[in-house]
Amino acid sequence: MARLPRLYLPGCAQHIIQRGNNRDACFYGEADYQAYLAFLKDAAAKYQVDIHAFVLMTNHVHLLATPADEQGIGRLMQAQGRKYVQYFNHTYGRTGTLWEGRYKSTLVDANAYLLTVYRYIELNPVRAGMVTHASEYPWSSYSSNAMGKAIQLLTPHPQYAQLGKTAKERQQAYRSLFRGRMSERDLMAIRESTNKAWALGNDRFKAQIEAKTGRRAIPLGRGGDRKSEKYRRTKYQ
């Protein structure tokens, strides 16, 4: 089956996943995490991409980002990825690729899923059993979004800004989002949308994305496209 082109829309947040080749480790030590974030910060500034949330796991990375134009995310990932691979190969005396092919991404409905994706990203170390609470993991945006630690890489999304009038109120409201576990429904929706490049949101959002991009934002119904002329001709034969 032909691979669908990625969905891009300036000003619309995207959830991005980049995995290590063969699920191998991409980070060996503290300096590696720091280097990745430094390269990411430079690329985000250069290509006008706002980074709202991130987590650097041992063998993959999650980002929540909003580009100013259609090329922003692609250029960011290409530039940042290239620099980090050069750093990594030089540091560890290796050659060849580090990342597993193309990164995966989905457009996120800000009204329906934006803060849910924030949570999904920053709870990755908890789901992986690496820590018992998101605050214990040093290589995510939780310390900034929930605790107020200064991370220059980050730009709050407008949806995050609406959590409170002051930084303290926003952080308190944000921490409250992490009480309890995420629903399986939300977990599956985020994973499927990101891995298969569908839009993540309600039906209205998906229809808007299709109208603006000219590309399907949802999978075809089982058994084929029920709206297609071919389906209608063959259904009752």
From TrEMBL:
It comes from the Bacteria. One of its GO terms (molecular function) is DNA binding. GO terms for biological process: DNA transposition. Residues 216-237 are annotated as: Disordered. Gene3D superfamilies: Transposase IS200-like. PANTHER family: TRANSPOSASE IS200-LIKE DOMAIN-CONTAINING PROTEIN, TRANSPOSASE, Y1_TNP DOMAIN-CONTAINING. Residues 9-124 form the Transposase IS200-like domain. SMART domains: Y1_Tnp. This is Transposase.
